[in-house]
Amino acid sequence: MYLVYADEKGNVYDHPGLFAVARNGDILTEILEEELIPLPEGSTLVSLPDTEPIGMDPDTGEMVKLDGCTAVGALVPQGITRLLLPGYVKTNKESKLPLFGYSAVVWKDNRFWVTGRESDDIYKWDPLNFPMDELRQRVAKTLETFPQNRILNHLSHCALEYECLTASNNFFNRWEGSLPVSYTCNAGCYGCISEQPDDSGFPSPQTRMNFKPTEDELVEVMLHHLKTPESIISFGQGCEGEPSTMASIIVPAMRRVRETTDMGFININTNAGLTDHIKGIVDAGLDLMRVSIISAIDEHYHAYYRPRNYTLENVARSAEYAASKGVYTSINYLCFPGVFDREEEMEAMIEFIRRTGIKLIQLRNLNIDPESYLAMIPKAQGEVFGMKQAIEIYQQELPDVVIGSFTHIPPDQLQRRKNMA
């Protein structure tokens, strides 16, 4: 498997003599055959600015830096879990990579391969199922039907400009649709994709919503989408802050919707730090809850999320309460090779999952500049297993917990909805 690199114009090449290597955290490592999958359809190859690639001389085993070239990574579709980072060194230590999740890529058998694992069925999140011409027509028709709804107008931008598939589902009237509700947040996540301080060095790839919706607007969006047993409407999107800060309008809106229809599922993607607010939302009829988390170790969690007036313990209590009330709970686990697979991280997270009754682990690649992230979190204390082995350990230790990438609907609850339809 050979090194892939780019020239100054962005043209991509495979090196005829150097083998590819990758990084697990900050450690250079050889790539195993079992860690490779063919470059998935929908992936994008990108050059990493201000970097130079590193390969391995197959005769001597020596690591070789390729001067005057740029390292290449792959941005893989949702549902593919990255196992290793590209092998590179930075030419400018102050430079920060844009907020994407870069996977190692190699050239083998006349094709590109990436270090990845298919963690879920990607059919519903395949961009080919979101034809842009049809989406434009559906957006225009929906906005004509709801001309005063600012949420749908906001989502039209997300769907057409950012090509957000969750937002697009609102206009296709299917699967999991977005319901952004909050322009404020009780955390200052280091890798937030919708709001960064001016001096952070990270340009935000999305624009956060800048208005407070009305209860009527929420109800309108929910009733527009919840029309089939499999439909899901989700608070908590990448273009907003923490949805539970708006519990004062979420709770009455949910109650009004459930007085009208039992169809579909109501989900919240949340940091779960506002336990009292989460309890109110749960009691109003919440079906699904996905808790965003990066670690079950306080020091690591707080370094990344930078929570305001809540702690990791609040997160655990929120998840426990939701599970006790029959809500199907999951974690949105932000994964980073060389950190996710640390012994102490795994032990703490397994204990957290057992305590809180989590039913589903949604593996999500952390979009971050690797050097910045590794510099801000605790150093590894024990063994680092590698992503593939770490996931296998989770499967062994938590046999009743589903490991995937997307929101799942419990089969018994889905059948109940179908019976009511």
Automatic annotation (TrEMBL):
Q: Per its UniProt entry, which superkingdom is the organism in?
A: Bacteria
Keyword Transferase found: no
Q: Which InterPro entries match?
A: Aldolase_TIM, Organic_radical-activating, rSAM, rSAM_sf
Cofactor or coenzyme needed? [4Fe-4S] cluster
Looking up Gene3D superfamilies in the UniProt record yields: Aldolase class I (3.20.20.70)
All copies of the Radical SAM core domain together span 180-346
Keyword list (alphabetical) reads: 4Fe-4S, Iron, Iron-sulfur, Metal-binding, S-adenosyl-L-methionine
* GO molecular function terms noted in the UniProt entry: 4 iron, 4 sulfur cluster binding; catalytic activity; metal ion binding
**Name this polypeptide is given:** Radical SAM protein
Its source organism is Brevibacillus formosus
